[in-house]
Amino acid sequence: MVKIGMMIGDRYEILEKIGTGGMSDVYKAKCHKLNRFVAVKVLKQEFSENANFVSKFRIEAQAAAGLMHPNIVNVYDVGEENGIYYIVMELVEGITLKKYIQKKARLSYKEAVSIAIQVSMGIEAAHNNHIIHRDIKPQNIIISKDGKVKVTDFGIAKAATSNTITSNVMGSVHYTSPEQARGGYSDEKSDIYSLGITMFEMLTGRVPFNGETTVAIAIKHIQEEMPSPKEFVPEIPSSVESIVLKCCQKSPDRRYQNMQELIADLKQSLMNPDEDFVVQNDPDMDGNTRTITEGEVAQIKRRTAYQEDYTEREDTMRLRTDTGSMYENEEEPEDGEDYDYNPKMEKVTTILAVGAGVVICVIVIILAVKVFGGMKDNKDGSSSPIQTEESSSSSEESSSEPEQIVYVEMPEIKGKLVEDVRNKLTELGLKSEVDYEESDVVEAGTVISADVTPGAQVPVGSTVTLTASAGAKGEVVPSVIGLTYEEANSTLLALGFTVTRTEAYSDSVEAGLVAIQTPGANNKLARGSNITLTVSLGVESSQVRVPNLMGLSEMDGTVEATEAKLQIGTVTRVYSDTYAEGLICYQSYSYGFYVEPGTVIDIRVSQGPEPKQTTYRCNASIEAPTAAEAPDYVTGSTVKLKLVADDGMVLLETSTSSFPYSTNYAPLTSSGGTLTMTYTVTTAPVFGTDENGNQIEVTPGTSEEKSFTRRMEFTPQ
Questions:
Q1: In terms of pTM, does the model score above 0.70?
Q2: How far from 355 is each of 215, 366, 401, 415, 463, CA to CA, in Å?
């Protein structure tokens, strides 16, 4: 058990718990070897004795550890100590893109594109390392306090070179690609689709497809037309609209083929937002929207049901904010209680799920038999492998008969890829679980055996347990930290590993010595596995070079300054005839100067050319009130005049009884104004006599002010 204050790996001091998920906890820790704060992700104790979970945790760590990029939450180290499995990650303070969108309602297209460029660069680095994220969404994108955008949570990522079919874990259904929703093959273009959906949400403040259930949303991704973001925000430039729609094509062949193409168009949209430069790929046969089949609907239901159960347990890495931890799982249960996985309850849940699955499948098959005569053909014309007893032609008789158990034939699975087998079992209406064991003979990810004999009749909804290879037993990775690169390289090569060298500055490790090794010591890896060694460059020079911020957007300029270890200070908006709106047109330190790290650079951002100001003149004669304006006005009586321009300036405030009254005011910034005229209406008292014949005032006299307004238009100068 991890406790506050304990040391892990003889270097990481646990300081506080900052987040938790279904599968792991995240702690803030201090690395005493490199004197920096890190985030340590620790597999929960109840899972540490489960070989399946441990294997998954190791795969996650090894996949993420190979990614080093400014736009990715970097993994520094992985290891195991006394049954504690952990990943050491970069600790970044900031806010998720999801919360940022919620805070601002929606983003401007410039800000959205700038964020998308940084996300794309991070994903591109992963793709270049043969890693597919498969869960790109605003919740997994972090905007740090210094403006850097980072992609996190490679928890369900996999190597692209594995050439396997998408597993039951489909990621978040609002952002999932059609091929993932179908349970088909997913590659780099699946990440491009999810990024397109994320861009749509940044631009509009909403997702394109929504529904009451995950199944309904998944089906919309497959067969409904993608709405244009301009339908919700008309001012979005046409080039940005085209980029989003190209990313979100149903057919992967019609999307951007790689991140490099997407990044190029995103940058072009910032410079020429209204140009039509986005090249649409030729449509293919699979690119048209089609109606989803009943079989695909059933398959999606099975997959999304599994997903909902899985994602409640899956740990989602988040960053720490001022008000709470970014490592906390944002997708909380509806009742507000934390999900606590209980291995004992899993078996009960599985039994219940099997029973429910059997009932649903029987109902569907009975209906199908009634409508289609008891047989449904596949696309190739062959009959379905599902076998059942013929139902009665009488609806009354069938309703009274007990439900029939549906059986399917267990296929041959030995020597096939785990993902292929699980997808096949899912298509047959069967559930599956996988236990992994080490093997020097069978290739990793290949099925060794199953608890059901091939050819056996299995009830629909049953669970088949597969045994698969976790790969060779491998070798234990030794610690080479503190050795020269030559010494470390020789040691690792002798054990059968391959080595990749990187370099970085270090305040605590002497130049030329290994400062970091990834994966870390004590991990057991197969021969041929790659280990990355980060060699110290020594203490970094105290001064840094000022980058050229001129012509960059405010966000890009902030990123450039942050990467140069500088800070952006005061941001002033000014008019500029040289730089377009939104671009930096001034920096307080010139490009190429050397300054101390942390130096504050003030910038000015262009508002575009200063608009030409039109001035006006008020040269008019004010006429006396007309009978229509003031029926009870008496000619020659005094009238109060007040003339106020549209910008609030009082031009005239006086009294006169002589009309017309001349005015002449210039220059004015308003094109017109309002004239208020106020006059007094008086009535004489009425006299009478009382009973004694004396004169008395029957009705007293009155005095009342009345007013009306006139619109006055001024003349341009």
A1: no
A2: 20, 17, 19, 30, 11
